[in-house]
């Protein structure tokens, strides 16, 4: 089965195709959604910072217009990426998630990190180039671990002050240089709740475009300690019975998948599928 969405580096000199528009307020959309006829939207005098060909949707080329500043288009509005994640079209969210990562990389690599001179896009390659330093900068992926800790019928869930009110989720954190994913997991759990874990098992991964994470999902069993939430990072952390869970993260997130998978296995239900 041919996937509806595939990423690709497209030639921005070619005409036609569709375009998504990203600015400081999120993605532009009208009553038909966030996909516009490329030639039409480019004729709207937008403050375009960069244009990138990002892939094919149902065989149609798709381009990203990354804007430099706020703007207004009659009949259009702006919407953040997280709102699209909660809506029904997962393929569209994947398109916009990828566009957001390319837009962030493009915006953050306009100038060379070594000498400060302006960088240029490399034709037909996802890279920015500094001629003075002969330096190429590619889109960054930041590896992080996310883990569901369990104790029989109980799962450990926590709240960050940044979460939607009432929602609890799994623990997560970014890997440090020289650290394996498993070492990261153990360190983050100790830092965030002062617990020890055992029987660490890799479950799956998910690209997370907020802004450029690769989430490596794990399951681990409780090995000891009392919960002590990390100040300024963890607002609350508790053991929850699988029969009485609090509000949980969005269904398309790997955090929710780790929870749903364990609950399904514990209760003998059909196992969920990790959103890809």
TrEMBL record:
Co-factor(s) = Mg(2+); Mn(2+); Zn(2+)
- Residues the record lists as binding a divalent metal cation 3: 188, 192, 233
Pfam families attached to this UniProt entry: NUDIX, NUDIX-like, Zn_ribbon_NUD
Key words of the record: Hydrolase, Magnesium, Manganese, Metal-binding, NAD, Zinc
Residues that coordinate or bind Zn(2+)? 112, 115, 130, 133
**UniProt-listed Enzyme Commission number(s):** 3.6.1.-, 3.6.1.22
Q: Where does a divalent metal cation 1 bind?
A: 172, 192, 233
Record's GO cellular component, any one?
A: cytosol
Q: Which domain of life is it from?
A: Bacteria
**Do the record's keywords include Hydrolase?**
yes
For binding substrate, which residues are annotated in this chain's numbering?
82, 125, 138, 206-213, 255
Q: Family assignment?
A: Belongs to the Nudix hydrolase family. NudC subfamily.
Function per UniProt: mRNA decapping enzyme that specifically removes the nicotinamide adenine dinucleotide (NAD) cap from a subset of mRNAs by hydrolyzing the diphosphate linkage to produce nicotinamide mononucleotide (NMN) and 5' monophosphate mRNA. The NAD-cap is present at the 5'-end of some mRNAs and stabilizes RNA against 5'-processing. Has preference for mRNAs with a 5'-end purine. Catalyzes the hydrolysis of a broad range of dinucleotide pyrophosphates.
Oligomer and partners? Homodimer.
Mind telling me what this protein is named? NAD-capped RNA hydrolase NudC
* Organism for this UniProt entry: Pseudomonas helleri
């Amino acid at each position: 089965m041919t996937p509806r969405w595939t990423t690709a580096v497209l030639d921005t000199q070619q005409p036609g195709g569709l375009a998504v528009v990203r600015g400081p307020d999120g993605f532009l959309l009208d009553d038909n959604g966030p996909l516009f006829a490329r030639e039409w939207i480019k004729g709207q005098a937008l403050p375009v910072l960069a244009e990138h060909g990002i892939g094919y949707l149902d065989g149609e080329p798709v381009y990203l217009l990354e804007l430099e500043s706020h703007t207004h288009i009659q009949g259009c509005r702006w919407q953040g990426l997280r709102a699209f994640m909660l809506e029904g079209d997962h393929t569209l969210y994947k398109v916009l998630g990828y566009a957001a990562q390319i837009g962030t990389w493009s915006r953050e690599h306009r100038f060379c990190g070594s000498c400060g001179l302006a960088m240029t896009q490399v034709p037909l390659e996802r890279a920015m180039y500094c001629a003075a330093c002969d330096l190429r900068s590619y889109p960054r992926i930041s590896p992080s671990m996310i883990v569901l800790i369990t104790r029989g019928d109980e799962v450990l869930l926590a709240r960050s002050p940044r979460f939607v009110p009432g929602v609890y989720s799994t623990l997560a954190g970014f890997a440090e240089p020289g650290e394996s994913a498993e070492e990261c997991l153990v360190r983050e759990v100790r830092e965030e709740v002062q617990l020890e874990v055992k029987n660490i098992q890799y479950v799956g991964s998910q690209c997370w475009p907020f802004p450029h994470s690769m989430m490596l999902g794990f399951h681990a069993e409780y090995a000891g300690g009392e919960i002590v939430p990390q100040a300024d990072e963890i607002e609350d952390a508790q053991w929850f019975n699988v029969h009485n869970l609090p509000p949980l993260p969005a269904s398309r997130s790997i955090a929710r998948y780790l929870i749903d998978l364990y609950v399904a296995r514990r209760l003998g239900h059909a196992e969920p599928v990790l959103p890809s």
